[in-house]
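in:
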């Protein structure tokens, strides 16, 4: 990525951050917030840097930066690029095994695997991997399998829309047919939570 383009992207991100704050933050301007996250991810991908909280924080602005501040940030990003190049490359399964051993936050690990931080991928990481419910190879396979917009959209709706409960077993079976091994566990967690809240759910 050329220096002028990088400078332009950073300036644009800064302006979007300032605009977001003026509009009242993510809760008041959700679409703008999503665009900012997409732009951060796109920029980090072009720089071959992982989309982790540390690198996201480098691209977050409370005010419009001066030219020197942008220059300093560009120099820092270039140093980080070189640092990443010099790091010993680990395989995805090695990253996952080490993450479990060291109890790493999924927000740092999933982006390095190219996996979105979605309610289901976080569930698989926190509840299956960290509790040793399955072998890391199987968990990685699940994370790769669910890295699909359509599947993630369906699963995401399960978390905030009660409509799926009218045909919960059919929905679970459909996702199991797609190859998802832990979806029933995930669904039952949602169902049990709702039952504890006093909801009546047919068939469960």
């Amino acid at each position: 990525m050329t220096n002028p383009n990088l400078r332009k992207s950073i300036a644009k991100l800064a302006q979007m951050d300032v605009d977001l704050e003026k509009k009242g933050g993510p809760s008041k301007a959700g679409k703008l917030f999503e665009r900012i996250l997409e732009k951060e991810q796109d920029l980090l991908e072009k720089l071959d840097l992982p989309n982790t909280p540390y690198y996201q924080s480098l691209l977050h602005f409370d005010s419009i930066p001066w030219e020197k501040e942008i220059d300093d940030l560009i120099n820092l990003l270039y140093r980080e690029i070189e640092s990443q190049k010099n790091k010993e490359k680990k395989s995805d399964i090695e990253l996952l095994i080490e993450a479990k051993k060291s109890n790493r936050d999924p927000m740092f690990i999933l982006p390095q695997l190219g996996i979105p931080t979605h309610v289901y991928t976080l569930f698989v990481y926190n509840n299956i991997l960290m509790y040793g419910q399955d072998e890391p190879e199987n968990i990685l396979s699940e994370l790769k399998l669910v890295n699909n917009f359509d599947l993630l959209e369906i699963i995401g709706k399960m978390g905030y829309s009660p409509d799926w409960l009218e045909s919960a077993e059919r929905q679970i079976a459909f996702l199991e047919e797609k190859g998802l091994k832990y979806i029933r566990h995930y669904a039952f967690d949602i169902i049990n939570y709702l039952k504890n809240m006093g909801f009546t759910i047919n068939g469960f």
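note: The mean pLDDT is 89.
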